[in-house]
Amino acid sequence: MNETTTLSGPPIYGHTQVVGVIGWPIEHSVSPPMHNAAFQALGLDWCYVPFAVRPEELKEAIAGITALGLRGINATVPHKQALLPLMDELTTAARTIGAVNTVLVQGKRLIGHNTDAQGFLRALRETGFDPEGCKAIVLGAGGAARAIVYALASVGSQVTILNRTPERAKQLAAEFSQVNPKASLQGGPLTPGALAQARGAQLIVNTTPVGMWPNTQESPWPREVSFPQGVLLFDLIYNPRETRLMRQARGAGARAVDGLRMLVHQGAEAFELWTGQSPPVEVMYQACLAVLGGNGKNGKNGGNGGR
Ligand code: NAP
Asked: Which atom of ligand 1 is nearest to the CA of 260?
């Protein structure tokens, strides 16, 4: 496999298959270089294009997918929820999470997928962590948390969701309690007291944007609470590549990983859905690194967790 990465796009012909990403704004997206590098590495006559789509023009843009003969699209902020009623069919994951991040075109039908949950589980397993039945704490209860909680519930984990607005955490726990009878979900406030009781957890996932560029000195974990040892911290943030929370975890002897591998794996899932080919994950990862920079401190990219 060719492991080198180039940001120059492949040649485009009349028979080139086209996919892309819709968002507003879209300039920050790392997905075009990530997918185009993958197409090039496998010698596929495909290309991936960013489309800046205003929220009020989403319906027209979606109608254009089949009219223009696109093979699929990704969606990022602010379109992921608004896509739900515009699909002909939804996967269970997309329906339960309440967001579509990947559209697969089958004939004239649009199938709405959500690859964030599988992307997270693949990134987690890649670290050597087995999430089946684990005890996990999820910080935050927003859009990203929905995919994470769905993923953890689907593998029968015991999940405590802690959120600044505790009602949202409790609501999320109640909403997802039917995903898997083996899982147990509860919600509560993101307070020092609740975090201090996180001792028995094997996994802590940060889904809040606290610590993201440019507010890199912030952390959702208060100084006065020591970070538990022997836990794996998974921070969904990938800009910067090492957050203050990750430093707190490593300082306490815990393992910490950032969100870039999840971003790559959700993209890899979409790649496989569209092309039917096994995705060149390392090529995709290196293409993201080339855009973000090794330390991820590029203010233009990775702003709102968008692909
Ligand atoms: P969101 O829907 O706006 O949710 C944000 C969550 O964080 C909410 O639960 C919110 O609490 C909490 N929060 C926000 N500011 C806070 C603060 N100052 N202190 C404590 N809690 C705070 O955002 P999102 O779409 O879930 O994205 C969240 C993060 O995930 C972003 O950093 C994004 O980049 C990242 N992300 C990464 C990937 C990846 O592939 N690596 C994918 C998606 C998202 P309230 O409910 O109280 O407002």
From this structure: 41
